[in-house]
Design goal:
Length: 202
């Protein structure tokens, strides 16, 4: 009875050792590949930034005069106005290594600023829309949220609030459009956003 157990233990130990060794080799290869790409990225010369998908805040179509004296909204508007002359680009889901490989290492600082401006913008849009929604201004909140979604924001609250507005107005087809939009996001939050929207669609 002990002999089969002994051989089973030997086989299990051999399998475990093989699995651990394979995992270590895989991790080592991934690490080597990362540093090879990072070295290549750091050696990439500055490239033109003309093909970037620059985002412009459409002040002429957003409800900037609605409740503009409200403290929260006034603060949001000041923030957005401060971004008006700043290049805004969404790089969510794109690593710095990939950015350097495509646009050159010397551009990484400026690209990071573009991306930070984007983050500030979508966070501010969410705050603005939430405040309007609290006051019952659903159509205005909807305008803001739809613009944010058009820029591929990955703020789950934006999709959740917009889906609730669509649900309240009986526009279930719009929720399916949101799901399709979310499925195309580069963000790691994509699955959570899609799952949340699917719950609205049920």
């Amino acid at each position: 009875m002990k002999l089969p157990f002994f051989f089973s233990f030997i086989l299990f130990t051999a399998w475990l050792a093989f699995t651990i060794s394979r995992s270590r080799r895989k991790a080592a290869n991934q690490k080597n590949n990362f540093w090879e790409r990072e070295l290549a990225a750091n050696s990439t010369r500055r490239q033109p930034l003309d093909d970037l998908n620059y985002i412009t805040i459409p002040f002429d179509t957003l409800p900037i005069h609605l409740m503009e004296k409200d403290e929260t909204i006034a603060d949001c508007l000041r923030t957005l106005q401060s971004l008006a002359d700043s290049p805004i680009v969404n790089f969510t889901g794109i690593s710095n290594t990939d950015l350097k490989l495509q646009y050159g290492a010397p551009n990484i600082d400026i690209l990071s600023r573009y991306d930070q401006s984007y983050t500030t913008m979508v966070c501010t849009l969410q705050k603005w829309a939430e405040r309007l929604h609290e006051e019952g201004e659903e159509q205005a909140a909807r305008q803001i949220l739809e613009f944010a979604v058009s820029t591929d924001t990955d703020i789950s609250g934006t999709y959740r609030l917009l889906a609730s507005i669509y649900t309240a107005s009986g526009e279930q087809a719009k929720i399916q459009e949101l799901i399709e939009k979310a499925q195309g996001l580069r963000s790691g939050s994509k699955k959570i956003i899609v799952r949340t929207l699917q719950e609205f669609g049920q």
